[in-house]
Design brief:
Layout: E1 5-6, E2 11-13, E3 28-29, E4 33-34, H1 36-43, H2 50-53, H3 73-82, H4 84-103, E5 106-107, E6 112-113
Antiparallel strand pairs: 1-2, 2-3, 3-4, 5-6
Amino acid sequence: MRSLFVTVEGDLYPCEKVCENVELARMGNINSGIDIQKASQILNIEDITSGQCKDCWAYRYCDFCIRYAEKEKEELKTCLLRNCADMRKKIEHVFKDYCVLRELGYDFETDSLRKGTENGRK
């Protein structure tokens, strides 16, 4: 929703990270405009795996997107599900890092250690 990539041929993609050889990721062309239905599918990629993902604890934090597409829709589903465990592990590490930094006195609002902490402890 924040970026748009345009190829030299004028094809429109959601960002520069997607594979330009994957038709599934192309949202339109500068001459014909954006295909709203296709853009909606790309921006709501979680619909492809919603049956498997809806009860996952990491669903809310998952950042899989169309950039993982190598070919077409069914292969994308396989690709997303194949990498699911790694994504959950990545999210878990982010949570652990956050907890450790908070415990050591890091203030995320000011991006610094809180005053009055000695070696990270109060």
